Amino acid sequence: MKRLNDIHLRDPFILPVESIRKYYLYGTSGETAWTGKPHGFDVYISDDLQQWDGPYPAFVPEPSFWADQHYWAPEVHEWKGQYYMLASFKSENRCRGTEILVSSRPEGPFAVHGDGPVTPRDWECLDGTLYVDRAGDPWIVFCHEWVQIKDGEICAMRLTPDLKEAAGEPITLFKASDAPWVRPVRGDDVFVTDGPFFYTSRTGELLLLWSSFGDEGYAMGIARSLNGDIEGPWVQEQEPFFRKDGGHGMLFHGFAGGLMLPIHTPNKQPLERPHIFRVEDRGGTLAIESALF
Q1: How confident is the model over 79-104, as pLDDT tens digits?
Q2: Contact at 8 Å (CB) between 240 and 221?
Q3: Has the keyword Hydrolase been applied to this entry (predicted)?
Q4: Secondary structure, 3-state, the chain
Q5: Which is nearest to 269 in space by CA: 8, 69, 42, 88?
Q6: Can you list the residues of the chain whose pLDDT is less than 50?
Q7: pTM of the model
Q8: CA distance linking residue 52 with residue 11, whole number of Å
Q9: Does residue 291 contact residue 274 with C-beta atoms inside 8 Å?
């Protein structure tokens, strides 16, 4: 059994499975986030968010798998009775992209689902998340990376119902520099987008959490859709939601009630660890109440 502080993980994603009252924790391995060949993705399992069993292998790539570096930001969503892992991968001679994997169980094993990344093959992309629109159609929302375009973007693209491939062209929801709290990471024209995640508030507002860099380092902000759906337009909060040396968060509801935010903090190797905060849903926005673990 491990506590969160014992788990060297970036980009934590927690999937609660109500039917068996278990939480599943996925993320980027801190040891191989930047260097070395990753072994795949692991999962940790808990029934109270405090003590975690694992790690258990969730995805182990076949020798022929195309990517050999930067296995980043896995997140798992249930869709039509199956579990789908969206994760980012990179190789020396191919652009980083988000690929979708599938399993019949939240713990895996996850297997390759389509034919490589669903994000554009000539774009440097990362941090894909799943969004289902008002009509019930699936989209992938992802970051078009600053390493290619300088001012990072949050983009969206329709998927086929089986989540195997794109079903349309990408659209840009907003740029990193659109947010007043974001600061450049290099010079005066390089801005980062990271870790998008959607949440519908208690009053029906569609909110998008995402990460970048602010006055106090790695941080997380909130954008709000003015039309309540993915195409927006999107407006940015003036101040970051989490402002100091932490981010790449998501939201889930605990079994005993309450809205929870896992993030990694600090944003510095090898010190990064998952932390969970309690969050208040204020309708048009969110507020962090307290640290849980």
Answers
A1: 999 999 999 999 999 999 999 999 99
A2: yes
A3: yes
A4: CECHHHCCEEEEEEEEEHHHCEEEEEEEECCCCCCCCCCCEEEEEECCCCCEEEEEEEECCCCCCCCCEEEEEEEEEEECCEEEEEEEEEECCEEEEEEEEEECCCCCCCEECCCCCCCCCCCCEEEEEEEECCCCCEEEEEEECHHHHCECEEEEEEECCCCCCECCCCEEEEEHHHCCCCCCCECCCEECCEEEEEEECCCCCEEEEEEEEECEEEEEEEEEECCCCCCCCEEECCCCCECECCECCCCEECCCCCEEEEEEECCCCCCCEEEEEEEEECCCCEEEEEECC
A5: 8
A6: none
A7: 0.97
A8: 17
A9: no
Domain boundaries, the chain: 4-291
Q: What is the pLDDT of residue 95?
A: 97
How are strands ordered across the β-sheet holding 153-158? 125-132, 138-144, 153-158, 171-175
What number of CA atoms fall less than 13 Å from residue 203's CA on the CB side?
11
What is the structure's pLDDT at 293? 87
Domain 4-291: CATH superfamily, name plus number: Glycosyl hydrolase domain; family 43 (2.115.10.20)
Neighbours of 194 (CB within 10 A): 25
Residue with tokens 């249930």: 78
- The token pair that represents 113 in the structure block: 């689902």
pLDDT at res. 215? 97
- The pLDDT value given to residue 71: 98
Question: Residue 61: its pLDDT value, please?
Answer: 97
Distance CA 123, CA 65 (A): 19
The Cα-based distances of 264 to 74, 108, 116, 207, 248 in angstroms read 14, 23, 28, 20, 7
Q: Partners of 103 in the beta sheet?
A: 83
Dig out the tokens for 170 from the structure.
Answer: 């990408």
